[in-house]
Specification:
alpha+beta, 60s Ribosomal Protein L30, Chain: A, elongated, 5 strands, five-stranded mixed beta sheet, 274 residues
Length: 274
């Protein structure tokens, strides 16, 4: 009697998903490799192209020496460097602005020289100082030269001094700012209730004299600072004397311009209804 072999049933393989997973990972890896290859730039070829374009525009013989990829390329030849240097953008108006600034500086130096000549005795005596800066020329005159104490009327010698200055400034087209200053000693009179009125009145007196001697009124500005912006301490008589002064500022035409922002017009007033 022959034995019958019992056929064993094949069991199901539960790890077949690993094959699909491995295929997916391989494809994903290949995809990123391709994307990286597309996005990377061949620096060597880029430099060769740049050098070729520069050589063509310069009409110089093109270099055929190969540039190894991944290594630092040699610097361009002097002809290429000069081409790059001369093709850099140049701001238009800079040369003209510099020339205008130089002419203005020379003009201001001549004005300062003329003022120093007419005020030489007072400059020597320490009652007048003339300084020049980027803002312009500052002629600082001690108030004792121009005004009696607590007054703003020009008389006698002060008129002669300012008339000489006005003759220098009359042909000049620059804006002239006259600034009046006082010390911190309080004042309270019918004409000048405070140092604000006194310093402003002194500046205005100088402006009126300038106008009478040919200086265009539209070029003049009168300002009063009272005891503010002192140049010395008000604790001593000498310091207070220095703080009582008039400064004639001849403003330079060439200064850094301030950007003006557009101002929106005010809305019309609302009509009231009863």
């Amino acid at each position: 009697m022959s034995r019958k072999h019992k056929k064993h049933d094949d069991h199901e393989n539960h790890e077949r998903w690993l094959v699909s997973y491995a295929d997916f990972i391989t494809l994903l890896f290949a995809f990123f490799v391709v994307m990286y290859a597309i996005s990377s730039v061949n620096e060597g070829k880029y430099r060769v192209l740049s050098d070729s374009l520069i050589s063509a525009f310069q009409k110089a013989p093109r270099s055929t020496q190969p540039i190894p990829v991944g290594k630092e390329a040699p610097s361009p030849n002097p002809a290429s460097a000069n081409l790059i240097k001369h093709t850099l953008p140049v701001r238009k108006g800079d040369a003209a602005q510099d020339a205008l600034r130089k002419r203005q500086e020379a003009k201001m130096k001549n004005i300062a020289k003329d003022i120093l000549q007419v005020l030489a005795p007072l400059v020597k005596g320490g009652q007048v100082s003339v300084t020049q800066s980027n803002r312009g020329i500052a002629v600082q005159i001690n108030a004792s030269v121009l005004f009696a104490p607590a007054l703003a009327n020009l008389e006698g010698e002060s008129i002669k001094v300012l008339t000489a200055v006005a003759k220098v400034l009359a042909p000049v087209e620059n804006t002239i700012q006259v600034e009046g200053y006082s010390d911190n000693s309080p004042i309270s009179t019918a004409a000048y209730p405070s140092n604000w009125e006194l310093s402003s009145a002194r500046a205005s007196s100088v402006v009126r004299l300038f106008i009478a001697n040919g200086v265009a009124p539209e070029r003049l500005v009168a300002m009063g600072y009272a005891e503010n912006r002192s140049v010395d301490s008000n604790d001593t008589a000498e310091g207070r004397a220095r703080n009582r002064r008039v400064t004639i500022m001849i403003l330079s035409d060439v200064q850094d311009k301030v950007t003006e922002l557009p101002v929106a017009p005010l809305p019309p007033p609302a009509l009231k209804t009863n």
